[in-house]
């Protein structure tokens, strides 16, 4: 999967989990590992999404990845 | 002029012989509204016997997942100046060697954007800035980073590593703690700023077993300098200690944890094969005793404050490893440990707790480290290693019985 496609897919994954389960970076990594995507690619896609401000890290007794509030 | 709050309970904490944080906050409160309101909130917390701070939520600056700890008052209507009172962690200098100019720069920026209150240093080792608002975070980060500073770690990430002063000021240091601390910081930037672990992970590096940074009690990974050679004994200096009034039998020989020291006829002798390198004798008889031979470090894993399974001390994993730049072997070992922890760790489970839960055997097998006697944490307890038939066919005990 191309990085751009992976980023969109990852954004949708986090978006669909909102309100149901807080995802940790490790959860995202495991999800894509099960789909056969290399860990480095997953890390890079997440890094880009966070650098762009489309995803943010939050802390609620542990660190999570979420969509920033509007 | 900042509002002045009555603080009869806090005032009690100014009495007595020790420095008082209340006195220091009061100094800041004379200049800033935030510090003054902080005193007001704190007095109310003491009076009502409950905290009025909440923490967590959205943290950090863009691109970072840590370094800022969101703190909010639950009584913002009464103390609007500290409705937000976020903590900023700055990655400290190895060994805490600051120039007065750099400290002045840090304080000037903090006076501009925050309460002016600082904490040098937090228990992890960060330079901690206490009390600012969300809208100022990006500006604070821009100002500090433009002067070469970076945020420290927070959340489920590698935390800011810290170390003792090491060879910069201490002749006992067996390793370059400052260089190791810096190398760990640089190597694991991603792990520090982008939280991806089950929970926090701390490195602390010390030059010897005196452990001036308390690494054995406070770090998930304790790097403790040690040596392989003998302890050199200067008998003339031993005689000087005795002449000066030291009871060498009681203070040195009897307190040796492995009883490997004998003192007879005014001569001190050490059975180095049975020495556990605890540093007690060297620290007491600095002029008479000195570590010699190959220098390196012991790597221990798993200490932490109470949480899931209570406080634990670190556990020896690698009794001796050369710790010289570029530290390739050490970094590879750490990455293997993290892989295992990532795979099996529950949310908020430290690596030491995972070892206790799943077993040292599985951990050692995964990271590729052989079991050795030094890993036995407590004598006369059940061994953690169970031999397979293949293991036994190789007669592993022969290496230790020759």
What do you see in this structure?
The complex is a heterodimer of chains A (70) and B (402). Chain A has helices spanning 3-17, 25-34, 39-51; strands spanning 56-59, 63-66. The longest helix of chain A is centred in the N-terminal third of the chain and has 15 residues, at 3-17. In chain A, 54% of the residues lie in helices and 11% in strands. In chain A, a hairpin with a 3-residue loop joins β1 and β2. In chain A, α1 packs across α3 and α2 (25-34) packs across α3. Chain A has three helices and two strands. Chain A has a single domain, classed as Orthogonal Bundle (Arc Repressor Mutant, subunit A), CATH 1.10.10. With 402 residues, chain B is an alpha+beta fold. In chain B, 34% of the residues lie in helices and 16% in strands. Chain B has a five-stranded mixed beta sheet. A four-stranded antiparallel beta sheet of chain B has the order 3-5-7-6. The relative contact order of chain B is 0.08. The mean pLDDT of chain B is 94. The chains are: A mainly alpha (70), B alpha+beta (402). Chains A and B meet through α2, α3 and β1 of A and β2 of B.
Set down the secondary structure blueprint.
The complex is a heterodimer of chains A (70) and B (402).
Chain A: H1 3-17, H2 25-34, H3 39-51, E1 56-59, E2 63-66
Antiparallel strand pairs in A: 1-2
Chain B: H1 8-12, H2 21-29, H3 33-48, E1 53-55, E2 57-58, E3 68-69, E4 71-73, E5 87-90, H4 100-113, E6 117-120, E7 127-130, H5 137-146, E8 162-163, H6 177-187, H7 189-193, E9 203-206, H8 215-218, E10 221-227, E11 231-233, H9 235-243, H10 248-253, E12 261-264, E13 267-270, H11 280-284, E14 289-291, E15 295-301, E16 315-321, H12 328-344, H13 351-358, H14 360-367, H15 389-393, H16 398-401
Parallel strand pairs in B: 8-9, 9-10
Antiparallel strand pairs in B: 1-4, 3-5, 5-7, 6-7, 10-15, 11-14, 12-13, 15-16
């Amino acid at each position: 999967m191309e990085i751009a496609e992976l980023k969109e897919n990852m954004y949708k994954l986090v978006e669909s989990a909102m309100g149901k389960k807080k995802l940790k970076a490790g959860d995202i990594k495991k999800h894509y590992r099960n789909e056969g995507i290399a860990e480095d690619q997953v890390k890079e896609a997440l890094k880009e999404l966070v650098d762009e401000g489309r995803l943010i890290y939050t802390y609620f007794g542990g660190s999570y990845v979420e969509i920033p509030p509007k | 002029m900042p509002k002045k709050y009555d603080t009869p309970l806090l005032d009690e904490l100014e009495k007595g012989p020790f420095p008082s944080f209340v006195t220091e906050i009061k100094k800041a409160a004379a200049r800033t509204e935030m510090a003054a309101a902080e005193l007001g909130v704190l007095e109310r917390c003491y009076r009502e016997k409950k905290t009025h701070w909440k923490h967590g939520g959205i943290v950090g600056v863009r691109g970072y997942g840590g370094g800022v700890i969101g703190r909010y008052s639950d009584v913002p209507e009464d103390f609007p100046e500290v409705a937000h009172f976020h903590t900023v962690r700055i990655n400290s200098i190895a060994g805490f060697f600051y120039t007065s100019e750099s400290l002045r720069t840090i304080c000037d920026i903090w006076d501009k954007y925050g309460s002016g209150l600082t904490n040098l240093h937090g228990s992890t080792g960060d330079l901690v800035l206490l009390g600012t608002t969300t809208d100022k975070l990006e500006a604070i980060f821009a100002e500090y980073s433009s002067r070469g500073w970076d945020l420290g770690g927070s959340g489920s990430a590698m935390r800011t590593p810290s170390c003792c002063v090491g060879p910069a000021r201490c002749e006992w240091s067996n390793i370059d703690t400052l260089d190791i601390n810096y190398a760990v910081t640089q190597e694991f930037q991603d792990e520090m700023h982008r939280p991806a672990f089950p929970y926090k992970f701390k490195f602390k590096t010390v030059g010897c077993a005196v452990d001036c940074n308390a690494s054995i009690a406070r770090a998930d990974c304790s790097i403790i300098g040690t040596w392989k050679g003998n302890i050199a004994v200067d008998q003339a200096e031993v005689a000087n200690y005795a002449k000066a009034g030291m009871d060498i039998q009681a203070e040195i020989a009897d307190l040796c944890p492995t009883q490997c020291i004998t003192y007879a006829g005014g001569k001190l002798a050490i059975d180095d094969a049975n020495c556990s390198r605890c540093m007690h004798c060297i620290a007491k008889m600095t002029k008479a005793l000195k570590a010699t031979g190959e220098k390196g470090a012991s790597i221990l894993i798993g200490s932490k404050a109470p949480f899931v399974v209570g406080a634990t001390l670190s556990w020896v994993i690698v009794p001796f490893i050369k710790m010289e730049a570029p530290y390739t072997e050490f970094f590879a070992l750490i990455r293997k440990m993290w892989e295992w922890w990532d795979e099996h760790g529950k949310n908020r489970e430290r690596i030491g707790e995972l070892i206790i839960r799943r077993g040292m055997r599985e951990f050692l097998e995964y990271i590729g480290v052989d079991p050795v006697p030094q890993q036995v944490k407590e004598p006369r307890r059940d061994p953690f290693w169970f031999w397979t038939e293949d293991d036994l066919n190789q007669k592993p005990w022969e290496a230790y019985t020759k």
